[in-house]
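Lab notebook page, bench 4
Experiment: in silico fold of construct C2
Operator: M.H.
Input chain length: 105 residues
Purpose: comparison with the prior construct
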Amino acid sequence: MKYQVRFHAAAERDIAELLSELAPKAGVATALRFVGRIVDYCLDFETFPERGTRHDEIAPGLRTVGWRRRATIAFEIVDDKVVILRDSLRGSYARIAGRRARTLT
């Protein structure tokens, strides 16, 4: 079964913020490649979404997975969708806690 991968608005903001933080330091091309790799990794969840660590103690169905020891991706599986909730550099769980995507249609 293939799942549809969707990015919550908060995850989209995280990606945009990451790009704007990295571009002045590493250059636009490098920042785009770096952020593109994170997005590509998230899109791969369409074939095997039940990965990472469950965090039901924070929110039912919440999962996190690390990406190259540099970022933490928070997501949940809702029916046939994988909803990327947050993308956070260096595992900042404070930004992840309490985020839900059940309101997505």
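Observations: Strands lie at 4-7, 53-54, 63-67, 71-78, 81-89. The chain has one domain: 4-95.
Next step: discuss at group meeting.
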